[in-house]
Task: structure prediction
Amino acid sequence: MRISILLIILGAGLATYLTRFPLMVISGNREISPKLAKLMSFIAPAVLTSLIAPAIFLREGRIDLSLSNSYIIASVITAIIAYFSKNMLVTVISGIASVAVLMYIL
Result:
């Protein structure tokens, strides 16, 4: 591994730690209100969606909603499998497999 990649990873980890640590020190052992906990439960899905959506819907800098976009079809297949299986490993493997098969076909 190149040293620049290692420095980027360490820097990102340090930035993440330094942005969260002060809040943990200030809040101490206080309880989080149920309303705030409910609000915070939406953060991870929102961030994940903002990271994944461009990869699915953008092709060459343009929005591609056609059926020739294998990522859209694979995403629908993966979402259906995730809904019914409720198993992370099955979902990830089926998602990878569906992208591979669809990219080969399309």
About this structure: Residues 31-105 form one domain. Strands lie at 58-59, 62-63.
